[in-house]
Amino acid sequence: METKIPFLEVSDAIVMSGAETLYWCMQCGLCTGTCPWRLVPGEASEQFNVRLVQRMGQLGLEGFESENCLFACTTCRACVDRCPRGVDIIGNIRGMRAMLAEVGTIPPSLKPIAGSLHSQGNPWSGPREKRTEWTEGLDVPAFSADTEYLLFVCCTSCYDIRSRKIAKAVVTSLRAAGISFGIVGAEESCCGESIRKIGDEALFSKLAESNINLYNGKGVKKIIVTSPHCLYTFNNEYPELGGEYEVYHYTEILAQAAAEGKISLSGKMAGEVVMHDPCYLGRHNDIYDAPRNLITSIPGADIKELARNRKNSVCCGGGGGRVWMETKAGERFAELRITEAIESGAKTLVTSCPYCITMLEDSCNVMGKQSELKVMDLSELVAENL
Ligand code: SF4
Ligand code: SF4
Question: Whole-structure pTM over 0.90, yes or no?
């Protein structure tokens, strides 16, 4: 008679949920040593060990105790490049989360996110019809057959009041550079990046297929995005669902425009800035030079580099759904970055991701450092120098 070992059935299902390299792990622990959770104190840091998470997955999630065991990962990718076995660690974590999502065992703070994505097409509980409220007073054109680029604005910059400044600055800067762009509007949905990382594969497919049908119907060929998270998903996850587009982060378009002399930057708000490389622009999309070239195209602007920059940049803490999960003050990655930025001597910390802005600015305020350091998206720096 065939004997069934229950945990093997679960771990097989995890592999089928995307954790295809789960058994490649040889438990060497290099990933754990690389993980930014080793840089901060606190409960999540004590409970999350990515090597043990791989083992937990191999054993069919035996030992899963709290959300910190699995949902602490920000999908920053720092560990992936170091793994000697080429394990797709983020894919493995996503597969394990998918198993838990199927039975409804996701952290309570993420449940409203999934609900809002289902009902309104965005994670911020904003009504669908208000997706373009940020455009008020800007006269942003609608995408048409004559438009070169669709501008896809991240849900965060559509609904979050602070983040709307990024969308406005991107529009102002693209317009100054003479770029042909338009938006689709309220029919559009979230790109689905975060919800896929959280593990809700069905919801991701629903959002992505809705956008792909919309864009293909309108003849979209090229897309400019305001967030590197959207860039990752459009480039890596939409093609297999039938959405094949040329996708650019706005820093690439503006850096190119500056190099070709199509945008004139004044330097009136220039000076020394220190740069934080977003994980999804850098490690996930390999874009390091475009934002730097854009900064140095501003007359009088100078970049100070953080010691941990480019491939070694430390995550802001907002990816993988963490932007919606509470991390106690004193235990946040963003606090490390704020301290490092202040120590650099620069007065302005520039980055180019709406999640990074949310996490870094919040930490700067909580630390009471806002008089010492201004946190800006690069689009805002460009718009201030037009
Ligand atoms: S670095 Fe790779 S092989 Fe080593 S424990 Fe981590 S996932 Fe496993
Ligand atoms: S992706 Fe980043 S946060 Fe997640 S386990 Fe790897 S290093 Fe840690």
Answer: yes
Q: Is the pLDDT reported for residue 129 higher than 50? A: yes
Listed by start position, the domains of the chain span 6-105, 109-254, 263-384
* Distance (Å) from CA 89 to ligand 1 centroid: 8
In 3D space, the residue among 365, 369, 382, 360 whose CA is nearest the CA of residue 342 turns out to be 369
Q: Per-residue pLDDT averaged across 74-94, rounded?
A: 97
Name the H helices within 35-177: 43-47, 50-58, 67-70, 89-102, 111-120, 155-159, 161-176
Q: Does the fold of domain 263-384 match that of domain 6-105?
A: no
CATH second-level architecture of 6-105? Orthogonal Bundle (1.10)
Residues in contact with 50: Cβ distance below 8 Å, sequence separation at least 6, in sequence order = 31, 32, 35, 73, 79, 89, 93
Per-residue pLDDT for 65 more than 90? no
Average pLDDT on 262-271 reads 84
CA angle 351, 353, 354 (to 5 degrees): 120
Within 13 Å, how many C-alpha atoms sit on residue 52's CB side?
A: 13
Alpha helices by DSSP H, 103-141? 111-120
Domain 263-384 falls in which CATH fold?
Answer: Rossmann fold (3.40.50)
Q: Which of 21, 23, 48, 83 to mutate to test the pocket of ligand 1 (most atoms within 8 A of CB)?
A: 83
Letter string b/e over residues 267-278, b meaning 16 or more CB atoms within 10 A of that residue's CB: eebbeebbbbbb
**Distance from the alpha carbon of residue 49 to the mean position of ligand 2, in angstroms:** 9
